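Notes from the pairing session

We agreed to fold both candidates in a single pass and log them together. This is the raw record for the first candidate, unedited. Please don't reformat it; downstream parsing expects exactly this layout.

Candidate A
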Amino acid sequence: MGEIIKKKKNIRRYFIIFIVIILTIVYMIPLFYIVTTSFKSWSDVQQVPPTFTFKPSIGAYIRIFTARVVFTEEPTEEEIAEMTWYERIVYEETGEKIVRVGDLPKRYLNSVLIAVASTMLTIILGTIAAYGFSRFKIRGKDDLLFFILSTRMLPPVVVIIPIFLMFRYINMTDSHLTLILLYTAFNVSFAVWVLKGFIDEIPIEYEEAAMVDGYTRFQAFRKVVLPQATTGIAATAVFCFIFAWNEYAFALVLARRVSQTVPAWLPYQMGVLGYDWAAAAAGTFLFLIPAMIFTIILRNHLVRGITFGAIRK
């Protein structure tokens, strides 16, 4: 009987592993297609149906970082010989001339600044609010918590027009601060609910013992609660960062030139020869890297945050 049960457990385990592998492959197909497309030359990316055997080229990465124009006259052999290696790659693939550095670095910097600032502000406000809801008796606490959560239920696209009119009235469109405040407002409800659950799990006796030893309430919060809530804070930061990093609707409507982020800028990479799919794929892959790195760094905390509350004593 014991051997039969053991065999059934092994079969179930192998079946789960098989399903996980299949799902991983399915989810990785879009990423694989993006990466392969980003290394295709201009001629390869125009082929229909798409080809998976091609000579790799970094021309798309050069084009996404540069602004170009078509040569008015065919360059001479001397002019071609004087081109730098990256100018020659672009010329051989598309016949274009590089005139300056493109807008990607600035848009990338905008995305980093807005996502990091909004995530930090969300974590600060969310941690303080979650601590208050967890430790103090507040009249109408449940109603307030539901009201905070209800702001997360509202899709951003539903309120984009009134928000645009409001910020236009106070002359705050196309501003980094505008997007930071909006992303913070939409993320703070999620942060409060997640962090409140983590703080609830921290015994209040630890803080009481610290205050008996002479700590103030803020010192007990900073030296006792925060270190034990690190896992929850890190997991919350990952989700808030990903939302702010990927957000498209607000960035499209409220940001034009000064504060435009990569998601709102990337879909409009229409060159003089048509839409540059390889350059768009290269920009997409580069855009994925920071979120991937941030998630990998905090992966242990993220797993703990996802599984939080699954097992209770």
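Candidate B (folded immediately after A)
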Amino acid sequence: MQVARVIGDVVATRKDPSLTGIKLLIVQPLDTARQPQGRAIVAADSAGAGVGETVFFVRGKEAAFPFHPLQTPIDAAVVGIVDDWPEAPDAQGPAAGKR
């Protein structure tokens, strides 16, 4: 599972019939510092996410699991929305050394 930011929607006038009713999103993977990492990808949405939200997504055959029993031709899917992602305490900051 990886973390990404939703940066857009995909509108397709023609697509595989098994994708009917499934929203497609453009997601930009993020590193632990919340900076873009790698290329943006298209992911099927199983969580009801929207542009600007931070989400969890999976790749590979597991991406189709939320849409079972449909046999969807997808290899990436949004499976959750991040509600809170607190900043990690800076090892050099004022909290360092406090116990």
